[in-house]
Amino acid sequence: MKKVLLAAVTVLLVAPLAVPGTTAQAATWHKGAPKIARGTWTDKRNSPKGGMYDSLHITHKLFVLNDNDPHLTHLKYKKVGRHTYKFRGYEFELGKTITTAGNWHFISRHHVRVTLDGHKMNLYR
C-alpha cells in the first residue's frame, strides 16, 4: 500500500514539470495610432535658412511624411516598452505591402526619438 501511495505522489509531483509551458505574446497590434503620437512632428535639424523642415503627420488611420511622400494606411501600433511604440501599415506606393515604421520612444508630449534601421532621429511638435 505504501509503494502505491508513494508512486502516486511521485507522479503527481513530477507530471507538472514534464508539461511544456505556454509562451504568451504580451503586446498585441491595435488599430490606429495612440493619442500621444497623433499630430504633426518636425525634424528641426540642419535646415537651410528659410528652408522647410521634414514633417510627419499622424492621424488615427494615416501616417504621412512630407505632405505626400510615402504614407502608411491601415495604421496599427504595438507597445513594446515603457513609452515606446512600434507602428506598421500598408504602403500604397509599394503595392500594399506591410511596412514597419521603427520604434518610437516618447520622451515628452512634444519630443519623440525614432529608431529606424539603426538610425536615430529626434522629432518635435
Q: What structural class do you assign from the helix and strand content?
A: mainly beta
Distance between the termini: 76 Å
* Helix and strand element order: HEEEEEEEEE
Compute the CA-based radius of gyration. Answer: 24 Å
How would you sum up the major sheet? Answer: 9 strands, antiparallel
Q: How many domain modules?
A: 1
Strand content: over 45%
Shape: elongated
**Helix-residue proportion:** 10-25%
- Provide mean pLDDT, rounded: 80
How would you characterize this protein structure?
The protein is mainly beta. The protein has one helix at 2-18; strands at residues 30-31, 39-43, 54-58, 63-65, 71-81, 84-91, 97-108, 111-116, 119-124. A hairpin with a 2-residue loop joins strand 5 (71-81) and strand 6. The radius of gyration is 24 Å and the shape is elongated. The model has no long low-confidence stretch (mean pLDDT 80).
Key descriptive features of the protein:
mainly beta, 1 helix, Lipocalin, 125 residues
Question: Could you write a compact summary of the structure shown?
Answer:
The chain has 125 residues and is mainly beta.
Please render the helix and strand layout as text:
Blueprint: H1 2-18, E1 30-31, E2 39-43, E3 54-58, E4 63-65, E5 71-81, E6 84-91, E7 97-108, E8 111-116, E9 119-124
